[in-house]
Design brief:
Cofactor: FAD
GO molecular function: acyl-CoA oxidase activity; FAD binding; fatty acid binding
Radius of gyration: 28 Å
Family: Belongs to the acyl-CoA oxidase family.
Catalytic activity: a 2,3-saturated acyl-CoA + O2 = a (2E)-enoyl-CoA + H2O2
Organism: Coemansia guatemalensis
Length: about 700
């Protein structure tokens, strides 16, 4: 099949429309890209894309939308194998393999080996264990996974039923799953790939339980890949998305491993069965891998949302529907760009502001994590609790924004958004697990709020609390842990327009909202309200806390620019837009602020008015702003958002490549179906006539 020749040119063409949008830019797109995207990430992405572009026969995922699950896994394994070869040849580094997964949206079967198995060995293994397990893992001589979730227990890690029992007679551990609930489930890289599993199991020594701890268990032979004795392992089958990953199940029937297979950097079991821990070790250090992965999720979500917003904003700026319906004038008879309609702007432009804030947050929080890990390495476990609470809150905030954002972008593309060629459908399914794994987002709020409540209780009891970004705002707004409003916060009595132009006042209001909600929840629970009855309020409190943390990180990042930077006017608009959007989305919180801080209906109406104005203003820079994300056509893998703007030409050409249409396969399939199905239906009457004869 080919596109018919001699067609009249489209006027205006989608390519011309995209070029016109780019011509509106009031800032240098490349300079914005250098500021908002982390230098290391940008450099790695460019390097990896160049390497992959040189081997399209391996890395082209153009046809992935036509593949079955088995074909997708086979293609992902081919890509993974080649990436490992390139790493060993020095063409890319080990951490750049994960960048390739991000670029291609192919989360292949080797993924959890890199993102969880290896980091757990790095963070919780002794030097001897790292020599024994980490080096072979880094060389891909063994392939690992992280087996924590069970079919009967996910979020409740303390409730895991897999046991790891010390057997002093043989100096071994016996790893066992006593019932079906203990079957490991949803474990990535387990279904067909892993030779070793990092199994989280209840450590039992001398009949006493020491809680969940990681132990390395060989599960398949490295010689022929067959399951080892006592091991039942397999793949879970097709899923809503993420189908290039072999999520699997695992049953262990009294499998014995050497005592040295228990990771013992933070807990030690001696030959005599004596259990010891290093001094001042926080038991939560065993969850260090989860904190690491949540940190990676926070970092990745900015890139994830950038792909979706790039597709939707580019496409809606080129797509035209109806003449004279939008407020902006067009050439006589010309239809308006879809992005000029207020409802489309309201859905997409706030996502841009969130996206820019997420890029800033990912850089700041990654630095925070690195500093905390350095402290842990020096034996200081003090910052771990605040890091864990912040990671939980930000994992929820960023993944919620990204996943809901992808769906919003998909919907904003109208009917064409439903096509796989939009690049948003399979992408949505592949990214959706981020709101569930490594802590369901609704449950993670409890971790963040538990930390907040503990700090308030300590302040009320007159105890010393560590100084960090959380306790600083609690102490600023609360007196001895209680809301007093003495002196009143600086935003009280000021107009919304003034607040929208004052970064310090914005942070003051967002932090005051979180402190007031935390104090109120503490009061309610001290008055007898149960934890279960408090869960809904905890969701709101966690969001309020994270709204402040994200806004603070965003403003902190903007403060690194010189005062006269040409980027600042647009970035300040985005930060103010995000502030107003948070207020508009959570207006009930504003009505309930204590005393003179409470908002009136007139103030909320003013928030809505100003938000609408700034959304219209930022819309003019929407295409340059998504261009600044630097998402390549390779990453987009979308017919609707090509950088050259040739949407409809590419869309039709892509459809013609469907096996049902493609020269060779298409006619053969249609001929077979005609004989088997269409002909008997179409000529049923003829068959009856012949039968009568």
């Amino acid at each position: 099949m080919q596109i018919p020749k001699g067609l009249e040119p489209m006027t205006p063409s989608t390519a011309d429309a995209l070029a016109a949008e780019r011509s509106k830019s009031v800032f240098d797109v490349q300079e914005m890209n250098r500021f908002i995207v982390d230098d290391k990430m940008r450099t790695k992405i460019a390097k990896v894309e160049k390497v992959m572009a040189a081997e399209p026969e391996i890395f082209d995922v153009h046809n992935v939308y036509f593949m079955s699950r088995t074909e997708k896994m086979d293609h992902a394994l081919k890509i993974g194998k080649r990436l490992i070869e390139l790493m060993k040849a020095g063409a890319i580094s080990a951490d750049e393999i994960s960048i390739a997964d991000l670029v291609l949206d192919i989360n292949g079967p080797f993924g959890l080996h890199r993102t969880m198995f290896i980091p757990t060995l790095e963070n919780q293994g002794t030097a001897e264990q790292q020599e024994r397990f980490l080096k072979p893992a880094q060389n891909y001589e063994i392939l690992g996974c992280y087996a924590q979730t069970e079919i009967g227990h996910g979020s409740n890690v303390q409730g895991l039923e897999t046991t790891c029992t010390f057997v002093p007679e043989t100096d071994e551990f016996e790893v066992h799953m006593p019932n079906l609930r203990a079957c490991k489930w949803w474990i990535g890289s387990l279904g067909v790939t892993a030779t070793h599993a990092m199994v989280m199991a209840q450590l039992i020594v001398g009949g006493k339980s020491y809680g969940p701890n990681p132990v390395v268990v060989p599960i398949r032979s490295t010689a022929d890949h067959m399951p080892l004795p006592g091991v039942t392992v397999g793949d879970l089958g097709p899923k809503f998305g993420f189908n290039t990953m072999d999520n699997g199940f695992l049953m262990l029937d009294r499998v014995r491993v050497p005592r040295s297979n228990l990771l013992q950097r933070y807990i030690n079991v001696s030959r005599e069965g004596r259990v010891t821990r290093p001094a001042n070790v926080d038991p939560k250090v065993a969850y260090g891998t989860m904190v690491y992965v949540r940190t990676q999720i926070v970092s990745n979500m900015s890139q994830v949302l950038a792909k979706a917003t790039t597709v939707a904003i580019r496409y809606t700026s080129m797509r035209r529907q109806f003449a004279g319906k939008a407020d902006k004038p067009t050439e006589r008879g010309a239809e308006s760009p879809v992005l000029d309609y207020g409802m489309v702007q309201y859905r997409l432009i706030p996502l841009l502001a969130q996206n820019y804030a997420m890029f800033a947050t990912s850089q700041a929080f990654s630095q925070h994590y690195t500093e905390c890990m350095a402290e842990l390495g020096r034996g200081n476990f003090g910052p771990l609790k605040e890091l864990h609470a912040t990671a939980c809150g930000l994992k929820r905030w960023t993944s919620d924004a990204a996943i809901r954002g992808i769906d919003t972008c998909r919907h904003a593309c109208g009917g064409h958004g439903f096509s796989q060629f939009s690049g948003l459908n399979e992408f949505y399914g592949n990214q959706y697990p981020n709101i569930i794994w490594e802590g369901d987002n609704y449950l993670l709020t409890q971790q963040t709020v538990r930390f907040l409540l503990k700090q308030i209780h300590a302040l009320r009891a007159g105890k010393e609390v560590a100084s960090n970004q959380t306790t600083q705002y609690l102490r600023r707004h609360l007196t001895a842990g209680r809301m007093a409003m003495v002196p009143p916060p600086q935003f009280v009595g000021r107009s919304i327009e003034a607040l929208a132009q004052d970064p310090d006042a914005q942070l003051e209001l967002l932090s005051f909202r979180a402190a007031a909600m935390a104090s109120d929840l503490a009061d309610q629970m001290e008055g007898g309200q149960t934890w279960n009855r408090s869960l809904v309020a905890m969701q709101r409190l966690c969001d309020a806390h994270s709204d402040y943390i994200v806004a603070s990180y965003f403003r902190r990042h903007l403060s690194t620019l010189p005062a006269g930077s040409p980027l600042l006017p647009t970035l300040n608009k985005l930060a103010s837009l995000l502030f107003l959007y948070v207020l508009e989305q959570h207006s009930s919180d504003l009505f309930r602020l204590p005393g003179r801080a409470a908002f009136s209906t007139a103030q909320v109406a003013e928030v809505e008015r100003l938000l609408a104005e700034i959304i219209e203003d930022v819309r003019e820079q929407a295409v340059p702003l998504v261009d600044a994300f630097g998402v390549s056509d390779m990453r987009l893998n979308s017919a609707l958002a090509r950088s050259d703007g040739k949407v409809y030409e590419n869309y039709l050409q892509w459809a013609m490549e469907d096996p049902l249409n493609k020269d060779g396969s298409g006619p053969a399939i249609r001929k077979e179906w005609f004989k088997k199905y269409y002909e008997p239906v179409l000529h049923a009457a003829d068959s009856k006539k012949l039968a009568k004869l």
